[in-house]
Amino acid sequence: MKQYSRILVMIIWMFLFLLIGTNESTQAITKFIKSEDGDIIECVDIFKQPSFEHVLMKNYTIFEMQKHEFSKITKTNETTSAVVHQVWQKSGNCPSGTIPIRMMTGKAQVELEQEQLTACKTEFAGLETYGNIYGARADINVWSVDVEPNEWSISAINIYNENGSYIQYGWMVSPTLYDDGGETRLFIRTVDPSHDIDCFNLQCNGFVQVSKEYAFGAALTPLSQFGGAQYEISLTLYKDETTGRWCVMYGDRLLGYWPPEQFPQFGSGVAALWGGQLCNKNIGNRYTTTEMGSGRRPSDGWGQSAYIHGLEVMDIGEKWRRPQDLHFNLSSDCYKVQTFEPMDGKMSAYFGGTASLQCCGISCE
Fold first, then answer.
1. pLDDT band at 166 (very low <50, low <70, confident <90, very high)
2. What's the rounded Cα separation, in Å, for the pair 135 and 247?
3. Tell me, what's the pLDDT at 45?
4. SS3 (DSSP) at 75
5. Is the pLDDT of residue 148 over 50?
6. Cα–Cα distances in angstroms (integers) from residue 279 to residues 121, 151, 220, 266, in the given order
7. Is 357 left (phi over 0), alpha (psi -120 to 50) or beta?
8. Interacting residues of 231 by C-beta distance below 8 A, sequence separation 6+
């Protein structure tokens, strides 16, 4: 049986490599990496990524970020964010001049088109601030959560403009989108209602990736444990004043950006939101069992609840500061937010929960 399995794997790999030479759409792929979690990562020529298919991006020059002296968010003594990486990185790396793109399965593509993952009621719980927003950042601990089919759960940073468009960056779980058993994955999301755009990762033109180290949609590891070690990722969204590009950073690494040619109406943000969201398709029927954050209530505290740590916003002049006038933004009583002050004094909060008859409409706190 094992022999047949090896033969099948060899046939699949031979088929993939033959595609490179016979299919024009895959000629940009220079290497395949088979991850131990089952993902296949395509190393794609950086100038042949999806965004460059747009007419506005022809003859485009890749933006290389100038050196910025960003002050690092001070960590608590109990966090270990530096060791969070992506599973596929254990199996290889993409060469210079390419970017890693997670291959979407045919099943996931069909279900995405049929089910429309964005056509649902969005539940949310987080902290929000208003004003002229040129950047937002924080640390968010990562968890494995239960998610119903055709739904998703997100923990992220969001920046909104005055027209209802927004960019979103964090971790998510979506068995349908990724055709998996519910892995926790790094993601970005682009939402532009005026042009009927609402898509995850690189599924639609608009975002230019520059990093060869991280793949949007790839699984993160290790994950936080109840009563044990807490693992977090440091996330930053900010606008580069020189180029007008909205940049995405993972720790101190630039992953990519939204160029103004693709998102011209997104001059500055008017609001920033930190926290959790989930897609609820059980409206009027029953409470969804999809979990937000860690699935536990904020009142359960450290080692049990999801948290966001070190919330900061960026003003014009690329100056970072603690946000003022933070507001609780909750879609219902099913999901909560609770601020706390860690040892370093940074603005922080627990968030999340799971819907139930006990918690929705009746306080669980």
1. very high
2. 9
3. 93
4. coil
5. yes
6. 6, 5, 21, 25
7. alpha
8. 79, 80, 81, 83, 84, 141, 142, 222, 223, 224
256-315 tens-digit pLDDT: 999 887 776 777 899 999 999 999 887 666 788 999 999 999 999 999 999 999 999 999
What is the reported pTM?
A: 0.85
Sequence letter at residue 308: I
338, β-bridge pairs = 350
Q: Output DSSP code: residue 79.
A: B
Residue linked to tokens 């990519």: 256
Residue 251 Ramachandran class (φ > 0 left, ψ -120 to 50 alpha, else beta):
left
Residues 182-210 have pLDDT tens digits of 999 999 999 888 888 888 998 877 799 99
Query: Can you tell me whether residue 136 is helix, strand or coil?
Result: strand
Beta bridge partners of 354: 291
Q: Which two tokens stand for residue 304?
A: 């049990």
Beta pairing class for 98-102 and 121-133 = unpaired
How far is 277 from 183, CA to CA, in rounded Å? 17
